[in-house]
Design goal:
about 220 residues; alpha+beta; Jelly Rolls; three-stranded antiparallel β-sheet
Length: about 220
């Protein structure tokens, strides 16, 4: 189903969108098993399954529930720009807050709306393969920062409990959910708080005419 008017409004307002439970339990189990074996016993997998997006994770590349969103916020000519998996244990983190601010004119990171059409630049899709609670430590965002007209203020760029921005937020969702966010949205991968690991696959998509990860 194409994006609803409410989804379009929510994505434009906040910079991210949660589409719950787009994967089946069997699909989730197969991808988790693949990632687990990649970590512990890669030789037990065929060579083409030893990294994402190969193997069972390949179904994520052009999943219909993903493409129907990407075609509306990037355009019809979409390419998979980058892909990696996470298996984050309690106490591990991925990165500090980054992104956000006035980059609307940037062809890769810019976000703008013209004539009712969203142009979101690079879009990250997080496939959460485990249930996520609000305080687990999944990806955090500062909503609206993708179209901020001023640079991100340092008072809002800390993940420390006593210095966290009042605007900082995360999400909760069942396993198999896809979270879309425009790459210029200020975001971070904070410390994972739960005893069981966070398992996920993260894709970056961009317009066919732009290339970022080839430059870095």
């Amino acid at each position: 189903m194409p994006m609803t008017d409410e989804e379009r409004f929510r994505f434009d307002l906040t910079g991210f969108l949660v589409r719950p439970a787009i994967l089946t339990p069997d699909e989730i189990a197969a991808i988790i098993d693949q990632i687990d074996r990649m970590r512990r016993d890669p030789e037990s997998l065929p060579p083409e399954h030893r990294a994402v997006p190969g193997g069972p994770a390949g179904l994520l590349i052009d999943h219909p529930k993903v493409l129907e969103v990407l075609h509306e916020i990037i355009g019809p000519d979409v390419r998979l720009e980058n892909c990696f998996h996470v298996w984050r244990q309690k106490g591990q983190r991925h990165g500090e807050l980054h992104g956000g601010g006035p980059q609307q004119g940037d062809p890769i990171f810019g976000y703008r709306v013209n004539n009712g059409r969203i142009h979101a630049g690079m879009v990250r899709v997080v496939f959460e393969l485990t249930d996520i609670a609000k305080n687990d430590g999944a990806t955090h965002f500062i909503p609206g920062s993708h179209k901020a007209n001023f640079p991100m203020h340092p008072d809002h760029m800390s993940l420390e409990d006593d210095k966290r921005s009042e605007f900082l937020t995360s999400y909760e969702c069942p396993a198999g959910t896809a979270i879309f966010f425009t790459e210029n949205l200020c975001h971070a991968g904070p410390i994972w708080q739960r005893d069981t690991p966070r398992v996920g696959v993260l894709h970056a998509y961009a317009h066919l005419a732009t290339h970022w990860h080839r430059l870095t």
